[in-house]
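Sample pair:
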Amino acid sequence: MPAEDTIRVLLVDSDRESANRLAQSLEKQVAELDIQPVGTADAALDILSRAEGRDAGWDALLCTIGKRHLEGLEFVRRLYEGPCSLPILLIGDKADLESAVEGIKAGASDFLLRGPRLARQIAPRLRRAIDRARAHVHRYLLLPALDSLPDTVLVADPRGRIVAASAGSHRMFARTEDELIGTPFGNLLAGDSGRTLSQEIRDLPQGATLQREVPAMHSDGRTFTTLLTAVRQAGIQSPFLLILRDISQWKNLQEQLAQQEKLSALGELISSVAHELNNPLTGVLGFSQLVMGYPDCPEKVRRDLRNILQQAQRCERIVHNLLSFARKNKPEKAWIGINGILESTTALLDYRLRVDNIRVIKEFDATLPKTMADFHQLQQVFLNLLNNSRQAIAHSGKGSHVTLRTHSMDDWLRVEIIDDGPGIPESMLTRIFDPFFTTKPKGVGSGLGLSLCYGIVSAHGGRIHAQSQEGVGSTFTIDLPVRAPADSMDTGLPEGHRQSTAPARRNVLVVDDEGSILELFFQILKAAGHRVDTARSCKVALRKMEREIYDLLITDLKMPDGDGRELCERWCELYPERSGSILITTGDTANSETRDFLNRSGVHFIPKPFDIKRLMQEIIDILGDASVDEDEHNREPVDDLAPSGATV
């Protein structure tokens, strides 16, 4: 059986004796040659026709021409009348050059001169002819079938030069087949990857396959990621089949999914940290407000407390922004006008804008329809955008005014915030809505502002995009759908604006594992005339609920020895007529389980840290509707102690 690298050749020569001598001589001098002589063209064609496939088992044909074989040219013409892919090399003398030219025109691949150099030349010339013939087969038999594929299919010779290319190459590289032919394959890859990969492919064993993710280069210099599959075909000096698939979009999607997973994990971390921060912040804010409200509080102490309160509120806003980033909850919408939100937003920044000598131009559409939207969330969007424009103008010294423009178009409302500041570099414009990306100096911005804006607008079913030109300014455009209320119209005012009368003295149980928060509730509720009982664990709270009757339960949700949800369920079992007299206070609002429970149960809720006035209003709203048996509260209190004595 012939070796794998053997070149099997059919030698056609009418002089059988001469053909046998030539075959023996060449086989003796060139080990890889396996030559079978045949005397006539008819005999050669018969051998080829009886093989499995016209040229199966043969790598090439040798045919003598001229006076030694008058049928040589006729054999070449007859051979290529059918679908033959075998290369034919002609052998003759110098006097046969004219016949050789005719033979090459008829389809022959090469012409070799008889003589002492024939044996040295024949093997490499045969290999080149075989490679060219196989590339021809790939191009005209294989590649047309692959032209409709989105992938690019290339055929490269053993040296890595492209000899054929499918139609996908033009879509991928913006280069035609003619432009690619003869180009080293490595030149299509970016950086050093072309050189190293080309060598790796050339070193492939016959029949082996290699697959890699490699950076490819477009004709305009742009790089993109491809999945390359290289196949080394069997046979001597066989070409390579290279299949390239553009996986840039898939890689981008993969990176986005990975980024979402990281952000999801980051959101859980933020939620946990914010919950821990909200408890001490509740104490700082609450006690500051409490002491400031004492009639005998000295003015100097009140001023210091006011500074403490302002800094604590600043921390509260930071935590709130982090929680807003971490959670994905639906906005609480009301029937409101966008112009009014913009007016209130500019009022919040009026002082800072005047200090920075920035003029606000309002171009509001007076006929702008109202829509269902969350007042506070949209105010946060407008506040972030307006403040960004103010900071850009103030820090750069470029620009003097911001234009707020509204108008409607079909079923959409459009808000434009336009400044004449320094603008945003084009390279950064596509990234400005990414979380934690910021163009502000270190320590000035967290990079969450615009990503929060994007999330809020998207949650409203709207769109937000930016246009900018360096040195000219920036325009942020917000499109919101016009949506009518499903039920009766809401005033759009926060719940804290409702007016209620203070309830009578009631019996309140407060449950929290933070002693400072229990102390705060104790003092606030005691000052309001209520009887207060406290517990620092779920077990203690359950025991007290079963032996005492309460009008209101105020509880945290997450505690070391239990869950506030269990307390709520037990409360409803003990006091079914007061199932609505529960107030949840928690700083863990970013947790999906917490949000689901609050939405499902419909209990009253106030997030930590809270404002005392809002807390009292919430308690008034709950207790104002609760039915109370006054006789229950005429008995002596059981355990009316401060948290330090009552909750162990």
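The two ends are 94 Å apart (CA to CA).
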